[in-house]
Fold:
Amino acid sequence: MVKRTGPTNYQLQGLVKELKKKSIEDNSGIWKRIAVDLEKPSRQRRIVNLSRISRFCKEDETIVVPGKVLADGDIDKKINVAAFAFSKTAKEKILKSNGQLMTIPELMKKNPKTSEMRIIG
Structure:
């Protein structure tokens, strides 16, 4: 049996450490949950299409995707999306719908209330 070592991407390793630290500081489980999801192997990380985001989200909602956002489908609402990675076309579609893109570290710095965020995937 192979020993699991976690992500080898240094930026991702740093992000996971920051998320765990933020979870302890704010005493909120959402940051810990995102960190645990990002620690998984890349094959098991979440991949979410815009059609799913559009279907399950409300106008002006903040969504967190601990993985990658892909461009399959259309988005017809103004939604704030934070993710570890975006495809190029997904970025264009979100910006075209007047939505806002941000990385997870940017979302942490913005420091929204955790009750106003949702993890999707």
Remarks:
- DSSP finds five helices and five strands in the chain.
